C-alpha cells in the first residue's frame, strides 16, 4: 500500500507538469481552433532563451530572465499569432497545425545550434529539499509546480468568468460571429489568448527546467504528454487540462510500476483511445456543436 | 474563402482538365526519371529512389486526407508495418518479395479497415487522435518485440527483389524498378480518383451530410478511402525495406507520421501530383540544403513554414491559382 | 505541371557534386547532429574538428591538409544511407561515424562494397560480429566492457543482487543484453530489470521501483542527460545503495548536471578526460577551451578516429583507401608513435579494440580514477 501511494504521489507530481503545459494548448484551441504541435517546444524554449541571454549579455540572472522571457512572449505570443496564425486561420485546422510542426523544428534546431546540443542546469527559485506526503518524498519543486498549476487554472477560471475582459474572451471562443456583432474586439481577444499561452509556457518552462534540465529536445516528450492530457481532459475546457494532466501523470507512473516499463507509454495511449470512443469531448469537455 | 459561387462552378471542368494534365505529367515524369540518374552517381540515384518510395506513402495519405477528408497520423506506422512484414517474410521465411509486397498491402489494408471503424463513430480531429495513439503503439511493438522485429537493433541484410531472372541489386536497376512500381501505383490512384468511387470520396470531403443525403454510403467509402490509403503506406514500406536494406523502428515513429502529413499538405492535398511535390520537399530539399551545413534543417523548416503561410493549399494549390490566373489573363486573387 | 519533375532533376543534379581532387585528405563524418543522437554526435563532431585543426597546424597528413565534412544522419537509417552513399560518391578517403547502431547497420555494407574504412563510435556488440573487414571502433565494445563491470560488482562491491536500469535504445538494450549473462555467470541475482525511454524526463517511478527492489547495488546504463535525471530522482526518493555505471554515468556532464546526487557513483570508464594519462587530460583541456564545455567519451572518439586515419596513412606512406583499412586491421597504435591516439590501442581483426580502461569513483563532484585495468591481451 505504501508503495502504491508512493507511485500515486509521484504520478500526481509529474501530472501537474503535464497539466501546466496543457493549459495553453486548450486555450488557443478554444479561441482560434489552433492545434499547436509546437506546444512542447514552447515549454522548452523560454529556459534556453534565459540561459542564452545570460550567456550573450553577460548579464546577471534576473536581467537575463527578463530579456529572455520578454523576447519569448513577443516572438511566440504576438509574433506567432500575427505572422503564422492570422494568415492561415481561414484555411482550416490542418494547414495551421502543419505549420506549427515546421515551427517546432525551427525552435528545436534553433535552440540546438544557437545555444547547445547538451543539457544544461537551470536555476530554481524554489529551495531544494523534499516534503513528506503520506510517507512519500515529493520535492519542493514538484510541490511548487502543483500549486502554480492549480493557481494558474483558478486565475484563468476567475478571469474568464469574473471579469469583463474574460467574458469577452469567452464569448469570442464560443461564437466569434456573434461576439463581433456584440461589438467585442474579437481580434484583440484572440491575440490576448496567444499572449496568455506564451506567458503560461514561460511559467511552465521556468518551473520544469530545474528538474528536467534545459535541452533542445525536451519539448518532444512534454508536448506529446500535454497533447494527450488535453484530449483526455477535454480540449475545450481549461480545467480539463488539469484533470487530464494529473490523470495521465498517475496512469503513467502506475503503468511503469505495475504493467511493464517497456510498454509504459502504451497505457496512457490506450486510455486516450478509450476516452475518445466513450466520451469524445473529453472527461471535462462539453459537446461541440457541429459547424457545417 | 473568396468567390464561392463562381469558383466552385468553374472548378469541376478545370479540375478534370488538370487531371488529364496530371496523367501526361505522370507519363513524362516516369520517362524522365527512368533515364535521369544516368550521370548522377549512386547518391543522387538513391535520393531519387527514396523520394519515389516516400511519394507512394504520401499518395496514400493524400487519398485519405485530400480526397476523403480524414486526417491520419499513422501513415509512417503503416509504412513500418509494410516494411517489417516484407523484411521478416523475405529474410526469415524466404518468401518471394512480390508475395511479401502483396501481403504487406493486404495486411495494412485490413488493419486500415479495423482502425477506420472509430472514424465512423467520431469524425475529424478525433480520428487523428486515435491514429496518433495507434502510431505510437505500433512503434512500441516494433521496438519491444525483439524476437520478431529485431527490436532496437532492427533487421539487416534485406535482399532486393529480382525481375524475371534480372537482378536488381544495383542502384540504377533498383531505381528503375521503383520508377515502374511508383508509376503503376500512381496510375491506379489516378484511375480510382476518376472513377465513381473517387467522386464519392470527394463528396465525402466537401460535405459528409450532403453526401449521405445524396445516397453515398459514407461509412463504406470512409473506410475504403482510409484502408486504401493505409495499403499505400504498406506498399511504400515494402519498397523502403529493400531500398535501405536495413530497418529499425526510428523511421516509423509518430514524428515521421507527422512529417508525412506535412508532405501531403505542403505538396497540396487533393491534387494527384501533390504527393510527388510534397515528398520532393520533404526528401530531396533537405538533402539539397546540406550545403548550408548545420543550419540546413532550420532553413528547410523555414521554407516549409513560409510556403504554408503564403499558400496554405500547398505548392499544387499555388500552381493551380497561377495557372488559372494565366488562363484568365488576370492576376491571381483578383477574383470578384 | 511538369515543373516538379524538372525541379527534381535540377535538384538531383545539384546533389551529385563532382569529386574533389586529391589535394586534401577528405574525411566524411556521417554523424547524428539532429534527432535522438544529437548530443553524442555533436561531441564526436567537435572532437573530429579539433583533431583536424591539430593535424593541419602541424602540416597535415603526408603534407596534405585534412578536411572533415559533416553530414547529419538525423539518427535515421534511410538518411544515414544517403549520407554514406554521398561520401563514397565524393571519394571520401575514410568515413567517420555514426554513433547509433541502427545508422551504423544501415550504412556499413555500403562502405564495405566501396572498400572504404568506416570508423564508428558505436558500442553495441553486434556490428563487428558480421565479418565486415572495413568497420572499426573507437571504443571498447559492450561485450568487452560488461565482463569488467560484472567482476567489479562481484569482487569490489560484493553485491549479491543488482537492479539494472537501462535506456531502451540500441546502446542501452545492447548493454543490458551483454551484462545479464555476465551477472548470471558471476552468481549475481538481477533483482529488477527496468527499461526507461530515450529522452525520458521523469524518473520518479523508476527510482521508487529501484528502491523497492532493495538490491545490493544498482547498475545504471543510460545516456548522459538521463543518467543525471535518474541520479537526482534516486536521491530524492532516498535510494541509498551504491550506483554502478559504465562510462556514461561517470561522465563530466552527468556530474555537472546531477550535482550532489552524483557523489559516490562508481564504475568502469572506457574513455575519460580525467584518466591519468597526459594525452587525454591535455585533450580535455583544449577541447574545453575551444568549445566551452567538457568533452564526453564521444568527443574523445572523434579525436581518435581522425588520428587513426593519420597514423595508418603515414604508416602506408600513401593515400590508398583500401590500404588504409588493411593497415588499421590488427594494428597496435601507441601514444609514443602517434600522440593523437591519446591511449595505446590495439585494433583486432574484426574492428574491435583492446586497450586499458579504468575503475573510477565520483568524489566531491570530481571523477577520480582508482584503478587502471590492463588490456585483455597485453
UniProtKB/TrEMBL annotation, chain A:
Q: Where are the transmembrane segments?
A: 6-29, 65-84, 91-107, 140-160, 190-213, 265-284
Short name of any one Pfam family annotated for the protein: BPD_transp_2
Q: What is its main location?
A: membrane
Specify the protein's topology with respect to the membrane. Multi-pass membrane protein
Going by the UniProt record, its keywords in alphabetical order are:
Amino-acid transport, Cell membrane, Membrane, Transmembrane, Transmembrane helix, Transport
Q: From what superkingdom does this record's organism come?
A: Bacteria
Annotated signal sequence range: none
Query: Where found in the cell?
Result: Cell membrane
Would you identify the family this protein belongs to, as annotated? Belongs to the binding-protein-dependent transport system permease family. LivHM subfamily.
Q: What is this protein called?
A: Branched-chain amino acid ABC transporter permease
Automatic annotation (TrEMBL), chain B:
**Name of the protein in its database record:** Branched-chain amino acid ABC transporter permease
The entry's keywords:
Cell membrane, Membrane, Transmembrane, Transmembrane helix
Known PANTHER family for this protein?
HIGH-AFFINITY BRANCHED-CHAIN AMINO ACID TRANSPORT SYSTEM PERMEASE, HIGH-AFFINITY BRANCHED-CHAIN AMINO ACID TRANSPORT SYSTEM PERMEASE PROTEIN LIVM
| Organism, as annotated | Bosea minatitlanensis
Cell compartments where the protein resides: Cell membrane
InterPro entries linked to this entry: ABC_transp_permease, LivM-like
Give the main localization category.
membrane
Stated membrane topology is:
Multi-pass membrane protein
TrEMBL record, chain C:
| Keyword entries, A-Z | Amino-acid transport, Signal, Transport
Query: What InterPro entries does this protein map onto?
Result: BCAA_transport, Leu-bd, Leu_Ile_Val-bd, Peripla_BP_I
Leucine-binding protein domain location:
31-365
Pfam families reported for this sequence: Peripla_BP_6
Give the range the annotation lists for the signal sequence: 1-21
Q: Does the keyword Transport apply?
A: yes
Which Gene3D superfamilies does its entry note?
Answer: 3.40.50.2300
* Domain of life where this protein originates: Bacteria
Q: What is this protein called?
A: ABC transporter substrate-binding protein
Keyword GTP-binding listed? The answer is: no
PANTHER family named in the record: LEUCINE-SPECIFIC-BINDING PROTEIN, PERIPLASMIC BINDING PROTEIN OF ABC TRANSPORTER FOR NATURAL AMINO ACIDS
Taxonomically, what lineage is the organism? Bacteria, Pseudomonadati, Pseudomonadota, Alphaproteobacteria, Hyphomicrobiales
Give the family per the record: Belongs to the leucine-binding protein family.
Amino acid at each position: 500500500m505504501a508503495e502504491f501511494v508512493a507511485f500515486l504521489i509521484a504520478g500526481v507530481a509529474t501530472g501537474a507538469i503535464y497539466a501546466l503545459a496543457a493549459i495553453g494548448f486548450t486555450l488557443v484551441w478554444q479561441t482560434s481552433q489552433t492545434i499547436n504541435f509546437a506546444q512542447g517546444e514552447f515549454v522548452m524554449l523560454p529556459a534556453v532563451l534565459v540561459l542564452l541571454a545570460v550567456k550573450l549579455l553577460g548579464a546577471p540572472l534576473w536581467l537575463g530572465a527578463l530579456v529572455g522571457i520578454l523576447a519569448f512572449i513577443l516572438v511566440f505570443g504576438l509574433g506567432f499569432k500575427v505572422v503564422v496564425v492570422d494568415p492561415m486561420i481561414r484555411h482550416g485546422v490542418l494547414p495551421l497545425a502543419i505549420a506549427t510542426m515546421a515551427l517546432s523544428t525551427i525552435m528545436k534546431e534553433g535552440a540546438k545550434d544557437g545555444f547547445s546540443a547538451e543539457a544544461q542546469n537551470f536555476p530554481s527559485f524554489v529551495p531544494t529539499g523534499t516534503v513528506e506526503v503520506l510517507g512519500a518524498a515529493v520535492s519542493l519543486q514538484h510541490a511548487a509546480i502543483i500549486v502554480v498549476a492549480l493557481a494558474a487554472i483558478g486565475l484563468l477560471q476567475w478571469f474568464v468568468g469574473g471579469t469583463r475582459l474574460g467574458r469577452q474572451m469567452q464569448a469570442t471562443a464560443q461564437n466569434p460571429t456573434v461576439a463581433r456583432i456584440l461589438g467585442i474586439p474579437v481580434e484583440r481577444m484572440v491575440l490576448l489568448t496567444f499572449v496568455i499561452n506564451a506567458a503560461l509556457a514561460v511559467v511552465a518552462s521556468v518551473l520544469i527546467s530545474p528538474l528536467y534540465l534545459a535541452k533542445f529536445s525536451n519539448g518532444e516528450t512534454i508536448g506529446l504528454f500535454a497533447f494527450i492530457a488535453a484530449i483526455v481532459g477535454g480540449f475545450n475546457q481549461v480545467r480539463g487540462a488539469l484533470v487530464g494532466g494529473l490523470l495521465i501523470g498517475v496512469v503513467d507512473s502506475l503503468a511503469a510500476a505495475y504493467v511493464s516499463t517497456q510498454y509504459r507509454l502504451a497505457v496512457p495511449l490506450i486510455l486516450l483511445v478509450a476516452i475518445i470512443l466513450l466520451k469524445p469531448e473529453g472527461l471535462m469537455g462539453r459537446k461541440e456543436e457541429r459547424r457545417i | 474563402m473568396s468567390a464561392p459561387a463562381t469558383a466552385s462552378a468553374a472548378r469541376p471542368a478545370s479540375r478534370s482538365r488538370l487531371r488529364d494534365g496530371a496523367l501526361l505529367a505522370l507519363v513524362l515524369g516516369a520517362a524522365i526519371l527512368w533515364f535521369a540518374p544516368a550521370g548522377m552517381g549512386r547518391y543522387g540515384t538513391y535520393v531519387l529512389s527514396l523520394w519515389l518510395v516516400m511519394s507512394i506513402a504520401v499518395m496514400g495519405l493524400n487519398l485519405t486526407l485530400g480526397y476523403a477528408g480524414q486526417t491520419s497520423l499513422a501513415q509512417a506506422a503503416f509504412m513500418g508495418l509494410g516494411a517489417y512484414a516484407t523484411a521478416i517474410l523475405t529474410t526469415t521465411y524466404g518468401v518471394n518479395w512480390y508475395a511479401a509486397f502483396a501481403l504487406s498491402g493486404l495486411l495494412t489494408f485490413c488493419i486500415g479497415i479495423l482502425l477506420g471503424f472509430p472514424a465512423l463513430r467520431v469524425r475529424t480531429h478525433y480520428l487523428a487522435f486515435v491514429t496518433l495513439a495507434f502510431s505510437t503503439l505500433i512503434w512500441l511493438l516494433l521496438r519491444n518485440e525483439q524476437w520478431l522485429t529485431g527490436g532496437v537493433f532492427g533487421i539487416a541484410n534485406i535482399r532486393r527483389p529480382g525481375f524475371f531472372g534480372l537482378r536488381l541489386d544495383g542502384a540504377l536497376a533498383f531505381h528503375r524498378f521503383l520508377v515502374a512500381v511508383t508509376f503503376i501505383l500512381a496510375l491506379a490512384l489516378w484511375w480510382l480518383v476518376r472513377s465513381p468511387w473517387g467522386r464519392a470520396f470527394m463528396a465525402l470531403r466537401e460535405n459528409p451530410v450532403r453526401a449521405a443525403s445524396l445516397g453515398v454510403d459514407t461509412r463504406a467509402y470512409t473506410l475504403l478511402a482510409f484502408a486504401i490509403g493505409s495499403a499505400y503506406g504498406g506498399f511504400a514500406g515494402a519498397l523502403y525495406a529493400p531500398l535501405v536494406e536495413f530497418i529499425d523502428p526510428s523511421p516509423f515513429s509518430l514524428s515521421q507520421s507527422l512529417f508525412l502529413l506535412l508532405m501531403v499538405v505542403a505538396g497540396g492535398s487533393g491534387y494527384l501530383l501533390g504527393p510527388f511535390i510534397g515528398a520532393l520537399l520533404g526528401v530531396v530539399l533537405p538533402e539539397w540544403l546540406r550545403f548550408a551545413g548545420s543550419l540546413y534543417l532550420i532553413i528547410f523548416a523555414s521554407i516549409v513554414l513560409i510556403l504554408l503561410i503564403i499558400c496554405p493549399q500547398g505548392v499544387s494549390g499555388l500552381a493551380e491559382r497561377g495557372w488559372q490566373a494565366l488562363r484568365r489573363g488576370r492576376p491571381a486573387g483578383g477574383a470578384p | 505541371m511538369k515543373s516538379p519533375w524538372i525541379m527534381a532533376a535540377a535538384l538531383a543534379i545539384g546533389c551529385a557534386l563532382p569529386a574533389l581532387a586529391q589535394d586534401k585528405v577528405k574525411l566524411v563524418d556521417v554523424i547524428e547532429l539532429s534527432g535522438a543522437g544529437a548530443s553524442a554526435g555533436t561531441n564526436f563532431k567537435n572532437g573530429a574538428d579539433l583533431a583536424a585543426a591539430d593535424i593541419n597546424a602541424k602540416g597535415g597528413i603526408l603534407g596534405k591538409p585534412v578536411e572533415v565534412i559533416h553530414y547529419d544522419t538525423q539518427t535515421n537509417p534511410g538518411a544515414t544511407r544517403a549520407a554514406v552513399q554521398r561520401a563514397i560518391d565524393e571519394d571520401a578517403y575514410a568515413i567517420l561515424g555514426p554513433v547509433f547502431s541502427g545508422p551504423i547497420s544501415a550504412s556499413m555494407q555500403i562502405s564495405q562494397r566501396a572498400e572504404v574504412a568506416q570508423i564508428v563510435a558505436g558500442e553495441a556488440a553486434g556490428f563487428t560480429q558480421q565479418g565486415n573487414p572495413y568497420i572499426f571502433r573507437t571504443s571498447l565494445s559492450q561485450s568487452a566492457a560488461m565482463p569488467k563491470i560484472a567482476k567489479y560488482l562481484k569482487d569490489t562491491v560484493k553485491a549479491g543482487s543488482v537492479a539494472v536500469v537501462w535506456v531502451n535504445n540500441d546502446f542501452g538494450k545492447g548493454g543490458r543484453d551483454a551484462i545479464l549473462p555476465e551477472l548470471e555467470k558471476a552468481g549475481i541475482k538481477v533483482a529488477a530489470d527496468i527499461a526507461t525511454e530515450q529522452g525520458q524526463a521523469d524518473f520518479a517511478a523508476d527510482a521508487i521501483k529501484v528502491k523497492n527492489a532493495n538490491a545490493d547495488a544498482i547498475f545504471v546504463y543510460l545516456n548522459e542527460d538521463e543518467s543525471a535525471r535518474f541520479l537526482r530522482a534516486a536521491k530524492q526518493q532516498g535510494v541509498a545503495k551504491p550506483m554502478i555505471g559504465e562510462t556514461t554515468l561517470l561522465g563530466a556532464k552527468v556530474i555537472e548536471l546531477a550535482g550532489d546526487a552524483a557523489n559516490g557513483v562508481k564504475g568502469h570508464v572506457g574513455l575519460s578526460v580525467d584518466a591519468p594519462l597526459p594525452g587525454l587530460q591535455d585533450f580535455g583541456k583544449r577541447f574545453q577551451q575551444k568549445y566551452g564545455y567538457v568533452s564526453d567519451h564521444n568527443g574523445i572518439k572523434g579525436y581518435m578516429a581522425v588520428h587513426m586515419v593519420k597514423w595508418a596513412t603515414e604508416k602506408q606512406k600513401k593515400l590508398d583507401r583500401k590500404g588504409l583499412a588493411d593497415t588499421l586491421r590488427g594494428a597496435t597504435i601507441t601514444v609514443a608513435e602517434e600522440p593523437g591516439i591519446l591511449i595505446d590501442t590495439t585494433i583486432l581483426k574484426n574492428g574491435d579494440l583492446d586497450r586499458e580502461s579504468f575503475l573510477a569513483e565520483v568524489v566531491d563532484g570530481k571523477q577520480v580514477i582508482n584503478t587502471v585495468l590492463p588490456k585483455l591481451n597485453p
